[in-house]
Amino acid sequence: MSGVGTKEIKRRKNSIENTRQITSAMNLVSSSKLMKAREKAEKSKPYAYALYDMMINTGADVKTSCKEFVEKREVKKRCFIAVAGDRGLAGGYNVNIFKSVMELRDSDKDMVVPVGKKACEYFTKKGFEIPYKIESTEHCVFEEMYDITQNLIKLYEDKEIDEIYFIYTKFRSALIQTVRFKRLFPIELEMLKKDEKKSEESSRKKEVKKVEPRRQYLPSAEALFKRLISEYTASQVYNGIRESFASEQASRRNAMQSATESADDMLNKLEAEYNRARQSSITREITEIAGGAEALK
After folding, report:
1. At what angle do helices 93-104 and 117-125 cross, to 10 degrees?
2. How many CB atoms within 10 Å of residue 274?
3. Are 120 and 135 in contact (CB under 8 A)?
4. Entry pTM
């Protein structure tokens, strides 16, 4: 009976050590993927910023002629583009996205375009109408996202949906990622200028010039604006997907690092407990031997 305590502790130590090896390996993999994901996210920004600047410059001249894109109307049906992860074990990353959609959705009149394996699985189980989906955030390409946004814009123009929202996770740093909720349609032209001043980063190295009050467009401001809508929407969503993937890797890295540190703490405590149990066992055996020797006298 004296060895039962130490055997149980050794079994627990082996189990935790095996788990620690897994979490440590996943931490390394996520760190590697995070570097690549951040690079891709940064590369997708310049095009999105350039389109953003063009939308601001053109928007003021088309408020009346393109009012179907900017005016609010009675909301009978909405569409959410929701970006989650391809895998789990990423802390609260996926849960935060699902919670945001579920708090806003009306299951009777809303549809969801899930992006990422976990999003596809979750919203399918919840019974949402899913007109389009993207199975992987990691392997999503711009052309795929462009085709989907084009189809959604057509549904919006045909008044089959009345609002389009984009929910994703913005990558701020390796330690901070926040859920963003953005309305894509109807377009809020006034909010474009306030939306984190994205154009500042793309043009901060350029010389600021005075803009003439009236511009000339070929073939027309309306034609340019309608063309920009497709490109702008796709670029915003694609850039959000790239940031979401970087956020997923950062969240998983943080979760696995935390799990590895917790495993280390548990192993240290078990090691101390094992040493005490072993010392107690040895002391007990010595006492028994001494007692037996005394009885033989």
Report:
1. 40
2. 18
3. yes
4. 0.78
